[in-house]
Amino acid sequence: MTQHIVVMGVSGCGKTTVARRISAMTGFAFAEADEFHSEANVSKMHAGIPLTDDDRWPWLRAIATEIDRQSAAGKSVAVACSALKRAYRDILLGGRPDGVLVYLQGSAELIGGRMAARKGHFMPPKLLESQLATLEPPGDDENPLTVSIEPAPDAIIDTVVQRLRARI
Q: Does this model's pTM top 0.85?
């Protein structure tokens, strides 16, 4: 049986780091949702313009297609994706009983500091406010693994992997 794990949260919370490490520790394939954005979406974000739902739908469907492609090939996958709204998560997890949602949760101050310190990313720190306004934290019915991002990255990853292994 294949698994797919969606590591979600606002930009700067550590999704890519966590999903990459999950992939390395489990042998799962890795998918970075940012790589599925259209050039138009990347240009908008780089210019500091928040994406709309209409901008996101094709992007989310492309990620879901990648999840299904990996599954059809008999591979499990760890996906780093903001998945800010329930409707977005429904595209990525809906109808896929093998999916697990990992929600990386942290304060705006902590995440903003991390965003300001990173280099070469197309998402400017000024868009954090719009991401936080869009964020619909997962409900209990989504059965998320909610993990604080306050500890050091290795501790966060250890927590996520331990909790995933207990669940899978």
A: yes
